[in-house]
Amino acid sequence: MLKKLCLLVVWIMVMAIPGRAQFVKEYKVSERKGFEMVHLYFSTYKSSTQLKRVITQDPVYVHGHLLKSNILPDFNYSVKDDVLDVKLVHKNVESDNLGKSITSKLFSDNTNFDHSWDVSLGSNFLYNLDFNLGMGKANFDLSQIPVSQLKIKSASSDVMIHYGTNVPNQVEMDTLLVTLNMGTVEVKNANFTNARIVILEVGYGKIDLNYSDGLASSSQVIAAVSGGNIYLRLPPDSHPVKISMKKNAMCRTVFPKYLKSIDKDTYVTKGYKPSDPRLLELILDVGVGSITVE
Fold it and tell me: How far apart are CA 111 and CA 227, in angstroms?
């Protein structure tokens, strides 16, 4: 009887603990004419963010689950010079008020983020995407979304960029840029991005870059990690690939035997030709850690 009474008391106490109150916010842009490009600037500080294509006639729809006690979203949009400029800025109202140092934030438990965002885009518009994620994680499914530029910056995040269906970018992406102070960048089906320039920079963490097939046009890639690892998966040896490495004494390298060394820091595939319009050129740089190429 006493045991049952104790269990009942514990259950009542647990039920009495207030949960993390959240509420839903939705933002929508209904403008459909008068512009040729959509520039989306999205800024948040501690959240889980997902981006994907939906069947819609509207250029931007954002759905958020937000922590009620710490929310200050600002959303606006305008059309100027054939560009639909959309901004969602999610500020941290606690910021420095709690006296937390940057170090304590980076090494805190980031598995439970304060907020979650679902960003939905259409297939009928050309997008220039600019994300500032602060801390958190992000999943970008770019399948069937025409993207001319994608920039992602974060203090500490795990970022995945992929294509949920085997449909590559229908336009040339000028630049794919991801810079993290700490975290992981994973780019699956990187050849689908159709990116002319790819820059991936991580202070401490990992870069996972997968070119499972060859390119339709040339691409220059810079992947750099101060402390951590780079994993690179190449297309078949018949595709033209050139890899240049900035060798460091504290970096271990694992390369496949089929790559040919043309100098102490440069490797090429069997199909390499300098003039090939489908050439994939990579510069890999790890300060402390490892580079693995398959």
Answer: 22
Q: Is 134 left (phi over 0), alpha (psi -120 to 50) or beta?
A: left
pLDDT at 82 over 80: yes
- Chain-centre distance of CA 239, in angstroms? 26
Rounded CA separation 124/55 (Å) = 10
Q: How many other CB atoms sit within 10 Å of the CB of residue 266?
A: 13
pLDDT at 7 over 50: no
What's the angle, vertex CA 172, arms to CA 293 and CA 194, rounded to 5? 20
In angstroms, rounded to a whole number, what is the distance separating the alpha carbons of residues 223 and 267? 16
Those residues with Cβ within 8 angstroms of residue 211's Cβ, 6 or more apart along the chain or in another chain: 190, 191, 232, 233, 234, 235, 280
* Cα–Cα distance for residue pair 185/208, rounded to 1 Å: 6
pLDDT tens for 222-264 read 999 999 999 999 999 999 999 999 878 899 999 999 999 998 8
- Interstrand relation of 173-187 and 147-162 (parallel, antiparallel or unpaired): parallel
Q: What is the mean pLDDT of the chain?
A: 87
Residue 36: pLDDT over 90: yes
Contact 78, 32 (CB under 8 A): no
Can you tell me the distance from the alpha carbon of 209 to that of 201, in angstroms, rounded to the nearest whole number?
Answer: 12
Q: pLDDT of 148-190, one tens digit each?
A: 999 999 999 999 999 998 889 999 999 999 999 999 999 999 9
Instruction: Tally the C-alpha atoms within 13 A of residue 188's C-alpha that lie toward its C-beta.
Output: 14
State how far the Cα of 293 lies from the Cα of 242, in Å rounded to an integer: 12
Q: Name the burial class of residue 10, with classes exposed (0-12), middle (13-18) and buried (19+) by CB atoms within 10 angstroms of its CB.
A: exposed
